[in-house]
Amino acid sequence: MDENKTENGTVAVPTLARHRNLSTGWRSIIIAVTVIVTGLAANQLFNAGFFIDHTWLDNEYQYALFGLLVPIVFILFPATASATREKVPFYDIVLAALTFVLLLYFFLNAELILDSGWEMGAPDYIVWMGMALWLLVLEATRRAGGTALFAIVLLISLYPLYAEVMPGPISGLSSSLSDTTAYHTLSAESMLGIPMQALANLVIGFLIFGVALTHTGGGKFFIDLAFALLGHVRGGPAKVAIFSSGLMGSMSGSVITNVITTGVLTIPAMKKTGFRPAYAGGVEACASTGGVLMPPIMGSTAFIMAVFLDVPYITIAVAAIIPSILYYLALFIQIDAYAARNDMPGLPRDQLPKVGETIKKGWHFVAVFVLLIIMLVYLKQEVLAPFYATALLIIINQIFPHTRWNMDAFVEFIVSTGKLLAEIAAILVGVGLIVGALSITGMAGTLVNDLIFIAGGNVLVLLLMGAITSFVMGIGMTVTAAYIFLAIVLAPALIQGGLDPMSVHLFILYWGMVSFITPPVALGAFAAATVAGATPMRTGFEAMRLGSIIYFVPFFFVLDPAFILNGDIGRTAVLFVCAVAGVILVASSLQGYLVFVGNLHRNLLGWPIRLLMLIGGLALATPGGSDLIPYSDLQLAFFALVTAGSAALLAFIIERRSRAQMAVS
Question: Using an 8 Å Cβ cutoff, are 250 and 218 in contact?
């Protein structure tokens, strides 16, 4: 299990091919920027007064981060895929310098901007500077987030200029180019809006912690621990993928990064024990996708959600516990059923790490997670927790000779942190333009009413519209961008329909993630297919089937917020037990094997049996007693007993007869 280990005890982190190969001089600049940004964040969030004798204004602090991080994008990312990656061309140096100078000016005049109300009417020279910054941000967004995100941000950021001429449902108040520019660059609703605020105050610490955890070998520890615990059982390597990718995805917040880092170990191991390449890729894609939805860290979108809902981040993490358990339970049951049906053993124990040795080498990762959870849950220090956890992790890492960083490893950690922060900053500032455009035109409020009207006041129709829209937006945009857009446009309509706000926002997040495992653009599955050497589309369909429970779970917690621990604990317990049983039936029907029963594929009755089991499982897992589901929990359970119960009994009888006949022959 040591293929990716480097000489200094860390784990080699795959470099992204779209980054330039930077010279020592440019790496030194990134190191300096990263150190300054980390220091500014610590100074602001700890209210330490290290560098100045007072706490900066919010826009002052955000302009500082903006001006330090976004210029780095022009140094890191070539303008085109075919551009040279060996040196930074002159025009990119000019773009980076211009971005820095413009934001330095806004930073130095941050207090004047607020006092003079320039966001509602700025001097002409400020407007011209704002236009230049607007264009630069669009280009930085294109390089960091891709062409699809750039096109969407461009069109929507210009929307205030033509809002009044648009058809009824998407019409709004138009603004002049100068007013729109001032609003985008100077107000607290656009470039410095919710996305940037979340980065500055919440996300930055967890991003640094995630990079530190990866570079100190945390990812390898969790993979080794998973192999030690589960590698020997049937379908062991696939179960290892669930465990390790879930933890790594929670830390990294990126599906693609997760697939690349853990998939290079888990996918070959799955193929070695008999899993088809496309199936192995589908397992890894689903496991990596679910990690972004799993507490305690989740992805950066969850932190933005906390800002939208104005609740502590830990409230989001707690709400996501049961949905993530159901998702991974369904994945685990399907893998176990597939392995049982195909008689697939685990790996030999002598080829696996020992549990004791693994924990002995990596106990400090567990200790760091304990500290993080205590600070999040008990001390309610969600802003400061990742900084303390990162400091503890690095200190412990340097104590042990087998993990200690040398200077090269420490430099690589800082550079990797700077690259990630710059990329995320460019994307979030770009997405902020969407927020600003919807805010200045007032379209968010009018579109909410139009959506309710189109749905005829039917919340179920509105939910289905929301699911489809979230899925489509998730294809063309990053999950964060899609979530922010829908949180402004769609979430208020669902909440006005009487649904729980937390449930609605999680619903949007979940359906935005669906695109990673659903063809035609299943990016997570396609990345896994590359590692597995399988056909991308076939891997996508395997992932779609394996992760199918993700299509239903969001409806469960929207129908009853008790699913997300918002309500009576007794009600939550009943729903959880029913959902677990229902998910087991659904997963077993999809794979054609039910524990204690056996193969569900026997003779022509196989498909009817599996269909009845699927219907009964969904009925059992669905919460009753709501306006949308007029049946009680008891009625749904009885229906499940009649359908799934009779199907399971019939399958049991057929399986026993089949085995008896085989024994006789």
Answer: no
Query: What pLDDT score was predicted for residue 346?
Result: 81
The tens digit of pLDDT for each residue in 221-264 reads 888 888 898 888 888 888 888 888 877 776 666 787 778 778 88
Is residue 440 within 8 A of residue 160, CB to CB? The reply is: yes
Distance CA 196, CA 304 (A): 9
Residue in the structure block whose two tokens are 């306006």: 627
Q: How many domains does the structure of the chain reveal?
A: 2
Residues, the chain: 665
Kindly report the backbone phi and psi dihedral angles of residue 350, in degrees, each rounded to the nearest multiple of 5, phi listed first: -70, -10
Which of 403, 425, 460 corresponds to the end of one domain? 403
Check residues 461 and 85 and name the one with the higher pLDDT: 461
Confidence of residue 103 (pLDDT cuts 50, 70, 90): very high
Q: How far apart are CA 169 and CA 204, in angstroms?
A: 37
- Structural domain including 552 reads 444-664
| Residue 375 · residue 386 · CB < 8 Å | no
Beta bridge partners of 594: 598
Q: Has this prediction a pTM greater than 0.85?
A: no
Neighbours of 412 (CB within 10 A): 21
Which residue matches tokens 């659903």?
518
Same domain, 506 and 628: yes
Looking at residue 60, its pLDDT comes to 92
Q: What pLDDT does 226 receive?
A: 86
CB 241 within 8 A of CB 543: no
Token pair 């290892």 is found at: 240
